Amino acid sequence: MIVLLILILEVVTIVQGGCPIRCTCTQNSITCVQSSLEYVPYFESLDNNPVIIDLSGNPITLIDIDDFSFDKSDQVKEIYLNSTSLSIIDDHAFDELENLQELYLSDNLLHYFPEEIIRSNENMVLLDLSSNYFAEMPKIQSKSLEVLAIANSRIERIGDDALDALPNLRILLLQQNNLKSVNPVIFSGMNNLFFVGLAHNPWLCDCKTVELFEFLISKRFVDVTEPVRCQNEKKIFVELGGKCADFNVTKPSNEIIVTTEFDNDFYYALMLFVAIITSLVLGATCGTCITYKFLTRSVKMSESKNALLYDLRV
After folding, report:
1. Could you give the CA distance from residue 87 to residue 63 in angstroms, rounded to a whole number?
2. Contacts for 292 with CB less than 8 Å, ≥ 6 apart
3. What sequence ranges are listed for the domain LRRCT (predicted)?
4. Residue-by-residue DSSP string for 261-303
5. pTM here?
6. How many angstroms separate the Cα of 225 from the Cα of each of 147, 198, 199?
7. Which site among 36, 77, 93, 171 is 20 to 30 Å from 101 CA-CA?
8. Which fold, 24-200+262-313?
9. What is the pLDDT of residues 121-157, one digit of tens each?
10. Domain extents in the chain
11. Are residues 123 and 143 in contact, defined by beta-carbon separation less than 8 angstroms?
């Protein structure tokens, strides 16, 4: 009898009235922001039909294979796991979310992201991995993904085949990483609807960098109104010239001392806004007819300084 009572109490503690404890539920959402949750809540007894699940700001370090496997998982279109100290995600954690469209994983402790983790999510259009710890840009497989944000993630290298498995990608945000040189061949397979953000990286002042941006500008893959700056041997950022010979003499009028003090949140908001407006204009010509709405979300974490917390809702 005592054991039975304990089990009943545990069930009541996990779910109250169909809504997980420490969470707020509406007809189409579950919100558990900053609720001190160490694990993904129990979703099996939900009364609502959750389109949005927001777990931002909780100390969740692991996403297991069954965490998002529940009866109404096919209803979910958006999941927010920003600022959750997340470091490990099972390769099949999102397999049951067949209608998932947007996944936000920014400001976490991810060093690795499984290549095929969203391959089975055929409706996925947006993935935010910004503010993580990737030495090399993760290679991701998805036929539907349109927006990939990996800004401020300490990326130093991009493999030549990094984008080969993303045939529908339109927007790639790689601002404020540690990129010094990138092979233009990475972007050679992208179509005319593609945009890439590469600002605030410590580009080397050499011919390879000149050739990279000449290619990107010729393809209109970058914002031509934004000055491109590279880091010379004196650790000074200078405006990237049009010729390799320009790097033999540093032009004082173009010198900009290296600084790390600028408003990252505003910068990302501006860049993401431009990217989404571009996607809106271009989206009118595509068969998918997807429309994005730009909204700003705020998760107040003491250590969260560079998070991209935005809604890009269908």
Report:
1. 9
2. 276, 279, 280, 283, 312, 313, 314
3. 201-245
4. -S-HHHHHHHHHHHHHHHHHHHHTTSSS----EEEE-----TT
5. 0.76
6. 22, 13, 12
7. 36
8. 3.80.10
9. 999 999 999 999 999 999 999 999 999 999 999 999 9
10. 24-200+262-313
11. no
